[in-house]
Design brief:
This protein folds into 2 domains: 44 residues, Alpha-Beta Plaits, CATH 3.30.70; 92 residues, no CATH class. The protein has 10 helices and 2 strands; from the N terminus they run αββααααααααα. Strands 1-2 form a two-stranded antiparallel ribbon. Helix 3 packs antiparallel against helix 7 and helix 7 runs antiparallel to helix 8. It starts with a helix and ends in a 9-residue tail after the last helix. It has 192 residues and is mainly alpha-helical.
């Protein structure tokens, strides 16, 4: 390929052709001498430099178990939208429900998606990232890391649970401790 670029830079038209022995670069008879001279000069000026080089890191390995998780997400979405099951009502993240004992919502909410575009975006990105992470660190570590990294970012209800628990502590110690209430967002500038 680099030879064809050299010839084109000199105004020499060339054609790639697949022969029995491999690929060949064909030039017209009137340009043959100029083409050979240009290629010789290119080889002199670029000794040892090649387009393809070995990469310094190990080869990339992909864990196809990530595809199973993507299929599970697709099945949950199908059941929720077309299958007639209302999984959103029982799996959606609601801080009141979690505080009252519906702990499974911390896990099921991640599997629910608003629409098909949302699901496809998550599956596309998740298949690549999760597949690479599962291959490198193992399925258990990768899935736990993905949950711990993504759950707080995508579930504002988790933050609300934290603030409500802190506000219960503040109400219990209310005897003149205004600074504790202000730390949990009871001031005019709300933190939680």
């Amino acid at each position: 390929m680099d030879w064809s670029l050299v010839l084109l830079s000199q105004g020499i038209e060339c054609i790639f052709e697949h022969l029995e022995a491999g690929w060949a670069l064909l030039v017209g008879p009137q340009d043959f001498e100029r083409a050979v001279a240009a290629l010789r000069q290119y080889e002199i000026e670029n000794p040892g430099w090649r387009w393809r080089q070995e990469l310094p890191w190990p080869p990339v390995v992909f864990h196809w178990g990530a595809l199973l998780w993507c299929l599970v997400l697709a099945a949950v979405h199908w059941l929720n939208t077309l299958g007639g099951m209302n999984l959103t009502a029982i799996g959606r993240m609601q801080s009141d429900a979690v505080l009252n004992g519906a702990w499974w919502r911390l896990f099921t909410a991640i599997m629910l998606h608003g629409d098909l575009a949302h699901l496809m975006a998550n599956i596309t990105f998740g298949l690549v990232v999760l597949g690479l992470a599962m291959a490198r660190y193992g399925p258990g570590c990768a899935l736990l890391a993905a949950y711990l990294a993504l759950a707080p970012a995508f579930h504002p209800g988790l933050r609300e649970i934290h603030c409500r628990r802190n506000s219960r502590r503040v109400h219990a110690v209310r005897a003149g401790r205004v600074e504790s209430a202000q730390r949990c967002g009871r001031s005019s500038r709300r933190i939680c």
